[in-house]
Design goal:
Elements (H helix, E strand, L loop, with lengths): L1 H56 L6 H16 L5 H16 L4 H7 L3 H33 L2 H5 L20 H4 L2
Helix pairs in contact: 1-2, 1-5, 2-3, 4-5
């Protein structure tokens, strides 16, 4: 009777441990899926911002020098490799701020045909980058915390996935966009 009871208790403990480990592995898997989706969302938002900036630069609504500066920054961000990507996207953000924060920029562009629509697209694209980056960095933080747990490290529940990295860029919107 006593040996049967010990075997039964050990069996229950083993089953509960296996269920818990399986649950933790499933959670890590779901977190990695969330991380991939957040990365794709950020990539799409950055691509959309570059496209809108290039559209604005090619619209002939700006002076040639401003158009050239915007187009160059967008091209650099588009063609940057993985190591230079954060720096290039930050440069595009700073260039956008310098252009949009010029005196009466928004008013002048709004008065031009098609200018108001471009401004609305630019506002939406810039805001989407901010939100997507925050969402990605939140997902990175949660995933890192789950991977750093003792059980996940010991049993290698994350498998051979790379340790997630934060995406740190200067994505502050131009002051003229933040006030509206």
């Amino acid at each position: 009777m006593t040996s049967t009871m010990i075997v039964l208790i050990v069996g229950i403990v083993v089953v509960l441990t296996a269920v818990y480990i399986s649950w933790r592995a499933g959670r890590l898997d779901r977190l990695h899926i969330r991380l991939e989706l957040a990365q794709e969302s950020l990539d799409a938002a950055l691509m959309r911002r570059r496209a809108v900036v290039l559209e604005l630069a090619g619209s002939r609504l700006l002076d040639p020098a401003t158009s050239l500066v915007l187009a160059a920054a967008a091209h650099e961000a588009r063609s940057a490799g993985p190591e230079e990507r954060e720096h290039a996207e930050s440069d595009l953000s700073r260039t956008l701020r310098a252009v949009v924060d010029q005196d009466r920029f928004r008013e002048k562009l709004s008065e031009s045909p098609g200018g108001r629509e471009l401004l609305e697209e630019l506002d939406a694209a810039v805001a989407k980058v901010v939100y997507s980056r925050r969402f990605l960095n939140n997902a990175v933080g949660v995933t890192r915390a789950a991977q750093d747990r003792w059980l996940a490290r010991t049993l290698r529940l994350a498998g051979h996935t790379e340790y997630p990295q934060f995406f740190e860029i200067d994505d502050n919107p131009p002051a003229a966009m933040a006030t509206e």
